[in-house]
Amino acid sequence: MTDLLTANQDSLKTVLTAPPSRADYSEGVAYLESLPSRLVRVYLPLTIILIVLLFPFYWMTLTAIKPDEQLLDLDRFNPFWTWNPTFKHIYKLLFETNYPLWLWNTMLVAVCATVLSMIASVLAAYAIVRLRYKGAQWVGGAIFLAYLVPPSILFIPLSSVVFQYGLFDSPFALILTYPTILIPFSTWLLMGYFKTIPFELEECALIDGASRWQILMKIVLPLAIPGLISAFIFCFTLCWNEFIYALTFLSSTQNKTVPVAIVNEFVDGDIYRWGSLMAGALVGSLPLVILYAFFVEHYVSAMTGAVKE
Amino acid sequence: MADIALGQVAAKPAMREATAWERLRANRNWLGFWFMMPAAAFLILFLAYPLGLGVWLSFTDAKIGRTGEFIGVENYTWLWDDSVFWLSIFNTVLYTTVASIVKFAIGLYLALLLNERLPFKAILRAVVLIPFIVPTVLSAIAFWWIYDAQFSIISWSLRHLGLISGNIDFLGDTWNARWSVIFANIWRGIPFIAITLLAGLQTVSPSLYEAATLDGATRWQIFRYVTYPLLTPIIAVVMTFSVLFTFTDFQLIWVLTRGGPVNATQLMATLSYQRAILSGQLGEGAAISTAMIPFLLGAILISWFGLQRRKWQQGEGND
To answer: Which class is A93-308 in CATH?
Structure first.
């Protein structure tokens, strides 16, 4: 840990102390910093990091629309650009493979698992935060611990459980196991949200004779809509992203989800497979990126909210 | 929990039937029990039970399609003498340590950069998060193509810059493969760390920076004595998660190398998948998974308590 900190401090020290002049320190006020110094200290490293972060997507997109002969001939064509974009790979993907079916499977599993988890975690979070039954705090802690149990140590016993329950190779195997990843996360997130809703509102409702169920449905949930959206899209993304359960519990081609299908069905040793492989990766990412573009703020608050608690 | 709740309720003398029912309906424990039911059912059936079952399986010789007999610690003694298992531990520890440290350093740096006054800040922040949104498997496939032995764009660029003469065999050589998967993992992990730390940074009141500036603190001192102490709690949580998920990583390795070449990138998770699912040795695979648990607990304790103590040293409340 100390190594970690010193390593980090050193890197930061060089970056933060090197470029700006001494005089700038005594001023110490950011808005007086000159433009050239800011260019070196902020914009340059930011640009480099952004390019590295985004390059794989650029490359993915470019490969997906490049004609085959340009893909593998790096000497006659500049690999960083193409003047003859083609939709052949994407067309082939959508009309000559099972890709739409896999997309549908992924969507179905993600939506069902997310809805199930949301119902379960709204109830659980409300009970922990507001009903405060005996031992609620301990249950809250246990749920946080459940969040820390990674799928990679669960998939072996889960596969035998899935067999026992007769769910193997059916979407239900995933719909029922994904909530174990999602419920701890979204319960924890919603607990944070419910805590911010004024207690007095519920007391008023109780005095007016509302039942706990009515309070939850008519007062708490409408006020927690931003939190619900955050939890929903984050869960949805997690489902879409999940790999190891889908890889283990599904075997037949028509049941697979996009990540598993791409890895298993597209890798056939064909030297021209890269175009369709990248098209598959691109089309598989698009739904999430579009969803994300509409809900950036919710997304960020989901990510940070669950951590802040 | 349920039994206690039921017992207490039942013990109360029922004056009228309706009253008892109404009391029951208003009883926190009774209501709490029903509200917790769905979540508890999922977590017990598909999390707690498999977790226990996994430990049990590691003491049996279970195979796919055959429930095993109890064989004591035979799986573990077998693994103890298995050089591939030790190699996988080495790989996993290396992978986790290097990736976590670099992710933290760059992630924090990126967070500090994004916390500056920037034009289009919201858009920048949104763009930074994209690697985290896109499913790991799909971005790993992009990396697979970038790391291709023959047509790698990195090799091509370096060759045209005159830095190397031949193509780099990214995934075919032992250490190249290790650094390549570590790089891909870092790439994927930075946005999460940067954005969560950025959220932490934004809660730091600007007046503290003003005060520090007036007292003549340098930029570095401001970071070290103002920003960093205030960030420690959130760093603790973020790094705990980061270490945890790096240690148990499976997807990235599976797509890029499947543990190859010659087990050079075999992590404990991929090894357990190979042994349990591909070779059918459920017991042995479960033993490998179970062997991950102490490491995970250790990692959680180190990053959690290591940083929590700092928080306490700074004189903040222990909430």
So the answer is: mainly alpha
